[in-house]
């Protein structure tokens, strides 16, 4: 996957955008047929998401294919991030984020933006930076070559990267009234809490909630899905201050995840089976 990302970052910007949909079709076919275990995980995700709807088998298969196709489109756009100009970002983006994020920062406490693996979360930070917001992306410790790949590309677009265990850097960023972005629908560290998720169970990290409660930081929920009227829709919900009840806070966050995933079931790009039987 690493070499595919490096190859795509070099080649895709040289190809006219009118060909990108065709390239995405080819990539989707490769992902679909070569990564069977991941395809089974996508199918399982969809069955949980759609458990309360009458869905036929052909519909599930179509949604799996659409998931791969949309993932390929987001992947291609992600490789182009260092080459986007302001006019490109304005053209592909419908902004429904600025007002609520400005409200969150008006408290002068920083803000925690909780997102999920839906749509193009890498491009989301770039678009927020383009709108003038000071963005800090929190990421798990990846293999060194992957970490350097993403870190260098983010820094080129003005995004600061902090690892999940770099707590003091996180605190300093909030004190400087920056937006700390946490993708929180997967428990990467293994220290999360098992919760009901659709009609199954998954582990969800507690870090974003604990951080927001400890420092009394406003929380906003945001996402960047592929959209109809523009290529992407940037959406951020109104800011909230979390209460002391950890269970209620977690329930609210999971409920938000479920609502957004139901709206875009073919854009929840989680290719690992993390359901707890």
From TrEMBL:
InterPro entries: LipA_acyltrans (IPR004960). GO terms for cellular component: plasma membrane. GO terms for biological process: glycolipid biosynthetic process. Keywords: Acyltransferase, Cell inner membrane, Cell membrane, Membrane, Transferase. GO terms for molecular function: acyltransferase activity. Transmembrane segments: none annotated. It is found in: Cell inner membrane. Pfam families: Lip_A_acyltrans (PF03279). This is Lysophospholipid acyltransferase family protein. It comes from candidate division WOR-3 bacterium.
């Amino acid at each position: 996957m690493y070499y595919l990302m490096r190859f795509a970052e070099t080649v895709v910007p040289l190809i006219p955008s009118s060909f990108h949909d065709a390239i995405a079709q080819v990539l989707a076919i490769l992902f679909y047929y070569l990564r069977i275990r991941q395809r089974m995980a996508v199918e399982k995700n969809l069955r949980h998401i759609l458990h309360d709807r009458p869905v036929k088998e052909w519909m599930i298969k179509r949604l799996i294919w659409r998931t791969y196709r949309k993932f390929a489109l987001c992947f291609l756009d992600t490789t182009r991030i260092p080459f986007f100009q302001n006019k490109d970002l304005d053209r592909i983006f419908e902004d429904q984020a600025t007002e609520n994020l400005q409200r969150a920062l008006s408290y002068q406490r920083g803000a925690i933006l909780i997102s999920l693996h839906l749509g193009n979360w890498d491009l989301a930070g770039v678009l927020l930076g383009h709108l003038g917001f000071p963005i800090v992306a929190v990421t798990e410790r990846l293999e060194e070559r992957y970490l350097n790949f993403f870190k260098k590309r983010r820094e080129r677009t003005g995004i600061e990267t902090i690892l999940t265990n770099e707590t003091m850097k996180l605190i300093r960023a909030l004190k400087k009234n920056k937006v700390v972005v946490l993708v929180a629908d997967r428990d990467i560290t293994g220290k999360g809490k098992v919760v009901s998720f659709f009609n199954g169970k998954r582990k969800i990290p507690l870090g974003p909630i604990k951080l927001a409660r400890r420092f009394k930081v406003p929380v906003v929920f945001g996402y960047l899905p592929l959209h109809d009227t523009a290529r992407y829709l940037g959406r951020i919900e109104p800011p909230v201050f979390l209460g002391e009840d950890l269970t209620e806070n977690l329930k609210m966050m999971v409920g938000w995840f479920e609502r957004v995933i139901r709206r875009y079931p073919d854009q929840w790009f989680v290719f690992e089976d993390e359901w707890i039987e």
